[in-house]
Design goal:
With 129 residues, the chain is an all-alpha fold. The protein has helices at 2-7, 10-25, 29-53, 58-63, 66-85, 99-127.
Length: 129
């Protein structure tokens, strides 16, 4: 049954297979965007479901670790701030690795603490929840 399949470990093996398929096919626009990206997204969804159903697995344990949870909390801020530091043709040292990575994480953490958390608290206060 579906439940027995998801409790087994085989969906985890599909993730690298999808990456290989996507890497090989993506050079062919007609099939790559249709099949490769769809296969990749489907197997990532399977992997996420597997981790949710099996939190004691290696992947589930990592995703529940403090490092992964902190990365999840900062992910939106990092997405917003990385645009200043990650460019194709770096014009200064702050746009080169590892400086840009450190600055992105530092500014994202500051943004999370100084902006996101207070604004979420304020929104809850205004809505009465």
């Amino acid at each position: 049954s579906y439940r027995r399949v998801m409790e087994s470990s085989w969906p985890v093996l599909l993730v690298p297979v999808a990456f290989v398929i996507n890497w090989y096919i993506v050079g062919r626009p007609h099939t790559g965007y249709l099949f490769g990206i769809s296969a990749l997204n489907f197997t990532i969804a399977l992997f996420i479901e597997y981790c949710i159903r099996n939190p004691a697995s290696l992947a589930g344990t990592f995703l529940n670790s403090r490092v992964a949870v902190a990365g999840g909390l900062l992910s939106y801020s990092m997405y917003l701030w990385q645009q200043l530091f990650f460019v194709h043709h770096p014009a200064s040292v702050v746009q080169t690795i590892p400086v840009n990575v450190g600055l992105t994480v530092a500014i994202a953490a500051l943004s999370y603490v100084a902006l996101e958390r207070p604004l979420v608290a304020w929104r809850k206060q205004l809505s009465g929840t």
